[in-house]
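Exercise 7 asks you to align residues with tokens for two separate proteins.
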Amino acid sequence: MEPLPSAAPLATKLRNTLVQYHGIADSEWRVAKKTKDATVWRKPSEEFSGYLYKAQGVVEDVTNRIVDHIRPGPYRLHWDSLMTTMDIMETFEENCCVMRYTTAGQLWNIIAPREFVDFSYTTNYEDGLLTCGISLDYGEVRPDFVRGFNHPCGWFCVPLKDYPNHSLLTGYIQTELRGMLPQSAVDTAMASTLANFYSDLKKALKT
């Protein structure tokens, strides 16, 4: 098990990586799924052999409230149907923490429950916020779970200029589920999970 890294340099590097993803040209993305709530694209990841996914949709609420529902905290577990447990293991200054969480099985349990330990960081971005994370090799792996790994991931949330009570939410996700899984099953699950994330989030914000 590795010791915890210094929070500030990791947060800076993570933010810079996400801003770089946010600048990738539209022509590099291929549509993976489209619903009334969101569009999901993908491109080959430069971090591992799977895909980097981009999801985007307009959410009817103010930026701070949306990000409060996404980042580690009391809201996320209530509405995110994929997340089954979440514990904050360490808290740092500057809106950084380390959290351990578990996810439910997917695709009739072809994808078994997973456990992740992520460093999470939330910061200002333009007129809105960016909440981002990356997995750490930290803490004992619990039995009954496969330890997955999130390469740099994050959510940009910025208010729409003409509709300040609406926000444009753009996510970048590249999750290495690990274990013996057919890549096609992973790709199907990822695109659907991201689209469902928007519809679940919208329902949660209305309650």
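Second protein for Exercise 7:
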Amino acid sequence: TVLQGIILLPLRAICIAFILLLAWLFASIATFRHCEKGSVPLKGWRRRMIQTTLSCLTRTLFFVMGFQVKVKGKIASLLEAPIFVAAPHSSFFDAIISALTGMPSVVSRAENLSTPVFGTILRSLQPVSVSRQDPDSRKNTVTEITKRALSRGQWPQVI
């Protein structure tokens, strides 16, 4: 059993790295030649690609790490709930919620967008970025979330 653990650990790490690289590839394809600033929502095949592939890859990633999540009840649609709240937001488990709800936009610090691999994946979710150096950032964030919530389905849900 200890030997199995020693053998399986590198295999899991390789699977996780492969899944992350696939997610990066699909995120890169979906955002290729799309407005970088996130002022225009992803539509059509780009949005469907993000919703289906990243959601599936994220679920697979957590399965490889040993998590299985079952949804009980009905997940609110974009038109029913343009803002989706995940609390207490204390760990990486928010990614499970994102995968189960169709990869909504997230609120994230602006510095996260420049992170290799993860930054590209995050950018494909069209986040509402918060800059800690900008004194108007709090007001701008509230304005952006409100704009997206009132867009009547043009933007994805915000988590």
